[in-house]
Design brief:
Distance between the termini: 26 Å
Order of helices and strands: HHHHHHHHHHHHHHHHHHHHHH
Helix content: over 70%
Shape: globular
GO molecular function, one term: transmembrane transporter activity
Mean pLDDT: 82
Radius of gyration: 23 Å
Largest sheet: none
Number of strands: 0
Organism: Aristolochia fimbriata
Protein name: Major facilitator superfamily (MFS) profile domain-containing protein
Number of helices: 22
Oligomer: single chain
Keywords: Membrane, Transmembrane, Transmembrane helix, Transport
Pfam families: Sugar_tr
Amino acid sequence: MASAGNDLEQPKLSFFGKGSKSSCAEINSSTEPLIVGNRYNEEYSVAAAILPFFFPALGGLLFGYDIGATSGATISLESSTLSGTTWYNLSSVEIGLVVSGSLGGALIGSVLAFNVADFLGRRRELIWSSVLYLLGALLTALAPNYPVMVIGRFVFGIGIGLAMHAAPMYIAETAASQIRGRLISLKEFFIVLGMLLGYAASSAYVGLVSGWRYMYGSSAPIALIMGIGMWCLPASPRWLLLCAIQGRDRLEETKETAKCCLCMLRGITDEAVALEQIDEILAELSYAGQEKEASIWEVFQGKCLKALIIGAGLVFFQQVTGQPSVLYYAATIFKSAGFSAAADATRVSVFLGLLKLIMTGVAVVVVDKLGRRPLLLGGVSGMAISLIFLSSYYTFWKSSPLIAVIGLLLYVGCYQLSFGPIGWLMISEIFPLRLRGRGLSIAVLVNFASNALVTFAFSPLQSILGAGVLFGIFFVIALVSLIFIFYFVPETKGLTLEEIEARIL
């Protein structure tokens, strides 16, 4: 494996871009790194790293499953013959609440995470999210009436908000720096895999009476497995040490507990190596002034403000470059191109899901080799080109649907190479430990809020402006996002979380 220390020799990006000597001097003078020279690779075992990744990643899989299952559940729920209810004749507003209920719950969960994340810790937050997933799935599947179903959707959504907040933090804080990018990107792979499972469940149950109950109920066993798995896993050593530094636990006892947790999570057999890594984290925490608990206003100051601009900016552009809207046109584009077998919405969704899965797999393989910035710059550039194709098709070349198909496939592939996995990866890495819980909750809130904004604003804007103009606007936003990435987003490949805080923020 390549030494993490080799990456430390690269020129550091300043907050305002590359090559700003005054900015670099200011950062170096205010936060002189404790970790210098060529450091050793963090010891880890691949076998030991599987479960600390797998169970948190199930939270992402359940998020993706909900998206896929809902596409078929609404069809089943509205059918007079297949809904199995007396209240199938739902209005567009009522169907909208079913579809967006989990998104609304996710927004609530993101707000809750801001206040409870640092108190609960990453592991317990994931346990609670699994409980909410389970309760929400059962309430929705067994709902005797419409109001109970909507409540179930919101409860499930709160679980999404907590899981999408805590899972990347837990994985980032427990994984070795050499594989951190790969594992967090693999969580995005699990989200896409969840979508495919949701589409498969929709296809399997849509012809059954009360099929929507089976679609939503099928997520309950996965939530149960996630909860049991997280219960068996140890807490994040970094969170334990932060609690000790802030006086919530006794330091010596916590060091021993953190050492045992690190040995379990990394598969380290030499306790001296584990203790050396624990001391390194403690030294960096003590130097960085992490003794006081974070206040709300500190999130918008200093290092965390810089991290917030980077993280929230990435997940904001992730949504407003048109990702929900492009997929909205998928079935229409394939139908116009003459792919009659793919005109069915479920088959189109499965096909695009497979493409997303493959491209996310590519990102997982190369993210720790190529780095975050090359994937972002290359992928978003591809998205911009694809948006030109889509805009041109709807504006000038309606008789050439192949252009739209190429644009759609290019967009989906490039998104899954860049914004899809890298957005979640960067927000889990970039925040200082003391403010990571609150900073990441704001970034997750921005993600879900911007998703809701694009989803709800798309139809009225499309009717007013037309699809061609709207995709042209998304192209301009993609160009702005490229400028943002080039000047503001640093490279974090190969650095420990403490090194990122000391050298980049």
